[in-house]
Each structure stands twice: as C-alpha cells, then as structure tokens.
Amino acid sequence: MAEAYPAYEERPRRRGRKVLVTLVVLLLLLVGLLVVADRVAAGVAERAIADQVKQEVAKQDAQSAPPKVDVGGFPFLTQVLDGRYERISIVLTDVRGSVEGNAVSVPRLDVDARNVRASLDTLRSGSGDVVAEKVDGTGTVTYDSLAALLDRPGLKLGEQNGKLAVTAPVDILGQKLTVTGTADVTVAKGNKVALRFNDLTAEGLPAVPLARTLLSNYAKGISIDVPLPELPFQLNVRKVEPRPEGLVVTADAANVPINSAR
Asked: If you average pLDDT over residues 105-109, what whole number do you get?
C-alpha cells in the first residue's frame, strides 16, 4: 500500500507560496504609497518655490505669467531632509519689463538652478533663504521690442542666416529708399546688447559720395548698446544669438537667492 506523505507536504508549500505572494503585493503597495507621498511632497515644494519666485520677479519691476517650477531628483524626501536639491527648473512666460520707458517683451525665460539649498522650515513657512549654487537662464527678446528701443520709424528687425537683419525706410537726398543689411551682435558691459550695423545697402541710392555718407551715418545711428531689462536671480548676460523667434539671450549667475527675502 502506497504512503500518503507527499499529499501532506504539498499543503505547507502552497501556504508558503501564498505568504510570499502576499508579502510581495504588500511591498509593492508600500513602494507605491511612498512614491505617491514623495511626489505629493515635491508638488507642495514646487508651489511654495513658485510663490517665492513670483515675488522675486516683482522685485525687478517686471511681470510674468505664474511661474512653473519642477523640482528634479528622486527621491525628493531625502533631499528635504538634507536641505539640498539637485536641480530646480523654473519657466517664466510672458515676461514684461521696461527699459528707458519702453516695454520689453520676453515670451519665455527658462531658468535652471543647480545645487539649491533650502531648509524644510523655509519651504514650509515661505521665509528664509533659497540659495542656488549655479543658475543658468535662457530668454528670448522679441524683435519688435528691440526695434522699439532703436526708435526709428518703420524699422524692422529679424533673423537672416543666423544674423540680425534690418529693414528700414530712409529719406536720402529727397529720395525715399529702403535700407537693408545685417548687424554684428555681441554682449556689452552692463547687461547690454551691442548692435553694429556695418553693411547697409539701399537700392536706388544715388551714386554720389554724400548719399553714401548719409547712409553710413544712419548705420552709426542705429549701432548702439541696447540695455536689457533687469533679469531676475541676478543673471548676467553671457551670449546673444539671433534666431527666427527673437534674440536669444543666455545668462548665468552663482550663489544667488531665488526667492525674495521677507
């Protein structure tokens, strides 16, 4: 007669597998809850920082749409405990400032703050310092805003083959002509953009020295250092580049607060 021991051994094995499956499911649920809690906490911090960034923009006498903030790095909660965050990305849209009474429009300003120091109490209360070890910013100045600063009726700016192009009506020796050409664009001291129009032409320009002199004087008149509106986060302009969407400005700063002291 065969022994029945194997049947009795099977039941403990089945119970062991069920316990293991249950533990795995509980572990997955716990991990899921921790991830959700981590993201919820990150969302709270992002809203708190966005509120402080809004105040920082207002300090510069500028306006913008509500800032969008993204706290990078995972997990977030360990960064909270450490009081240091790998990266905080800030997007400002529809930024409007003024220079010498003229409105300057920046459709988008992207700010990337690295190694940000902020205590838990600062994030919770909104008071205290949020300091970034390094901040990089990229913004776009519209050509209409830039043209307004040159203060020449009918002058239009744009991009042509990677260079700043100009078109403008002029009156030379009684003739109404259209001036076209390009400019060299560089960064000048004091967060200014240096425009140098060295190669202007005008179809139908009279072939006399005086006409060429008048055209040259016009080029000198619009070859100026254009001041930019004060940028938030103490950003300093490092590079300017004409693109189809506008004049793209690259700036950076180090060890600066990204919130407004209260």
From this structure: 82
